[in-house]
């Protein structure tokens, strides 16, 4: 059995990660076939990738259009102050808004970039006005509406 030292990953591990990012329900047998290993060594690698934190978990990819959540807006947020206390308060409060799909602290002319998913622009406007704008230390926001999603996943070909 091949071992990998120093918590590094090789070409086969990267291929496993890429394939699972495309189909997290792929059987170990199919995964092993695609990466050129037998089932047991592939399973060992898969367990190690999970144990070492390269794979955090598996989840279903939902059809947001069918769920009535196909409006995506990106919201720039500028805070009044960027003290650790202000950042911490904002970080904690943003977790309570389910329409905020992603929140990133940014180095640039604004402080946070939010990905917000709602039913339509009217619902987005309500979320922005009643929830996002009232988050701790928000000075102002700016919105960019997505017209089409070209790529949303990570390790594709």
Can you summarize this structure?
Helix content is 36%, strand content 19%. The chain has 157 residues and is α+β, with helices and mostly antiparallel strands.
Largest sheet: 4 strands, antiparallel
Question: How many distinct beta strands?
Answer: 4
Radius of gyration from the alpha-carbon trace, in angstroms:
20 Å
Q: Percentage of helical residues? A: 25-40%
| Shape, per Cα inertia axes | elongated
The ordered string of helix (H) and strand (E) elements is: HHHEHEEHE
The order of strands across the largest sheet is 2-3-1-4
* Structural class assignment: alpha+beta
Please, how many helices? 5
Relative strand content: 15-25%
Average of per-residue pLDDT values: 92
The end-to-end span amounts to 28 Å
- Low-confidence region ranges: 1-5
Describe the structure.
It is built from five helices and four strands. The radius of gyration is 20 Å and the shape is elongated. By secondary structure, it is α+β, with helices and mostly antiparallel strands. It has a four-stranded antiparallel β-sheet with strand order 2-3-1-4.
Outline the secondary-structure elements.
Layout: H1 11-22, H2 28-35, H3 39-51, E1 71-79, H4 84-94, E2 100-105, E3 112-118, H5 121-132, E4 138-145
Antiparallel strand pairs: 1-3, 1-4, 2-3
């Amino acid at each position: 059995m091949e071992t990998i030292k120093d918590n590094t990953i090789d070409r086969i591990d990267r291929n496993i990660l890429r394939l699972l990012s495309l189909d997290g329900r792929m059987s170990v047998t199919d995964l092993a076939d695609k990466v050129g290993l037998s089932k047991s060594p592939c399973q060992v690698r898969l367990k190690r990738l999970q144990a070492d934190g390269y794979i955090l978990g598996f989840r279903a990819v939902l059809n947001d259009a069918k769920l009535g959540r196909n409006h995506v807006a990106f919201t720039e947020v500028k805070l009044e102050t960027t003290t650790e206390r202000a950042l911490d308060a904002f970080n904690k409060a943003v977790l309570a808004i389910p329409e905020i799909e992603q929140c990133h602290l940014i180095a640039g002319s604004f402080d946070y970039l939010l990905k917000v998913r709602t039913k339509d622009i009217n619902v987005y406007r309500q979320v922005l006005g009643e929830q996002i704008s009232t988050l701790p230390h928000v000075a102002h926001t700016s919105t960019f509406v997505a017209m089409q999603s070209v790529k949303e996943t990570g390790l594709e070909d």
